[in-house]
Design a protein that fits this description.
The chain has 12 helices and 20 strands. It is an alpha/beta fold.
Length: about 400
């Protein structure tokens, strides 16, 4: 990943304001020689990741004092910290860059995509940071990064052990596009229609999917987890992949599927999801990579919980992560304002009024091509069982 990619991503985050200035954390002056251990670490790998911007002074000292050939990446989990910090050491194509996002998962993704992984880069906490919560947040990021291990795909070429699953409403827009984009050659497709009976007109209009198709029907009744459990109980494959009507696998991710279901290192896989809207992809503040656990081994323990924003539970580990292949989330492109409002009202009802769902137009965006260029070649990673993306 080029330094300019870091610059572009961070500029979009730091240029965003949601009502009021984001908060930072307290700092102290770094003592004499405090940066020397970080420089010594970096000389072994040629690259240093400084966790925390602080006042910007330590970053500036490192940026100006690093030996030739060494690169510096500063990671910031509190974008508001940049408001009063010294950023004079930054330039779009320089060897010192700032990477900012409130999401540790996003920073871990970007660092891995740039090759800044344990053994290939030294990670160190900024000695200026005096805030205990901030120090803990950066230490958690370091542990997350250290827990990532590369995974080799299996050598399988087919999807005969895979069940595809979906819960669909007959009025969902672009159902033909959804069916046309499904990976071919799976064992079966299980559809649970949100209806009292199977909509025969839609069932008969499906294209040739080169797999068995099972149609079930049951009203949603404001419980997404129960509907997905009905879907899961009808699946017979060793692996299950489920998608929503407004989701599409990009070609890179579809191409990885045979290797994912034929490897033995991971029992489930999480994919990053791009939230597409007319202005680009929603970015920053946890909106990306928006990890979605969608592919898993079918076991007696696996089940869905929570009526809305349902979660897949009962999974063993370790978890697999795909970098460089995305789910494309098309909800904002396929649905008009009224349809989105109805969807959010359904979420509100399913959640019993505990939260209000609204469409927000203010978040930063980047073009889809930016994310496609982050990882020219997809890579596979794992996290321990106790870490869920």
């Amino acid at each position: 990943m080029s330094p300019h990619a870091f610059w572009t991503y961070t500029r979009e985050i730091l240029g965003f304001r949601l009502g009021k200035e984001a908060s930072g954390y307290s700092v102290r002056q770094a003592g004499p020689g405090a940066l020397a251990p970080l420089i010594r670490q970096a000389t072994r790998t040629g690259r240093l990741v400084l966790l925390g911007l602080g006042s910007g002074q330590a970053a500036r000292e490192l940026a100006l004092g690093l030996p030739p050939g060494l690169e510096l990446t500063v990671c910031e989990l509190f974008p508001g910290q940049a408001a009063g910090a010294d950023l004079s050491w930054l330039s779009p194509d320089g060897r010192a860059q700032l990477l900012a996002d409130t999401s540790a998962a996003a920073l871990a993704y970007l660092l891995a995509a740039a090759g800044l992984t344990p053994g290939r880069a030294a990670l160190g906490l900024n000695p200026e940071i005096s805030s205990h919560p901030a120090r803990k947040a950066f230490q958690d990021l370091a542990r997350l990064q250290a827990a990532m291990s590369p995974v080799q795909p299996g050598k399988g070429r087919f999807l005969s052990d895979l069940s595809l699953g979906a819960i669909l409403h007959p009025d969902e827009p672009d159902l033909p596009g959804f069916f046309a984009a499904l990976p071919r050659g799976a064992k079966e497709l299980v559809i649970v229609w949100d209806a009292p009976e199977v909509p025969e007109r839609l069932a008969r209009s499906l294209p040739d999917l080169d797999m068995v198709v099972k149609h079930l029907a049951h009203p949603l009744e404001h419980d997404f987890a129960a509907q997905r459990n009905r879907m899961l109980s009808a699946c017979q494959g060793r692996w299950v992949l489920y998608l929503d009507a407004d989701e599409r696998l990009d070609p890179e991710l579809s191409g990885l599927l045979p290797g994912l279901v034929s490897q033995e290192a991971c029992d489930f896989w999480a994919f990053p999801r791009l939230g597409l809207r007319p202005g680009g992809v929603r970015t920053g503040f946890g909106l990306w990579p928006d990890w979605q656990t969608r592919l898993f081994k079918r076991t007696a323990e696996a089940h869905f919980a929570r009526a809305v924003h349902e979660r897949l539970e009962g999974l063993a580990g370790p978890a697999g992560l795909v970098l460089g292949g995305h789910i494309r989330h098309l909800s904002d492109l396929l649905k008009d304002e009224a349809s989105l409002a109805r969807k959010h009202a359904l979420f509100d009802q399913a959640g019993g009024g505990a939260a209000r769902h609204r469409q927000n137009q203010e978040f930063p965006t980047l073009p889809e091509s930016f994310f496609q260029g982050l990882t020219p070649e997809p890579s596979l990673w794992s996290w321990p069982a106790n870490i869920r993306p």
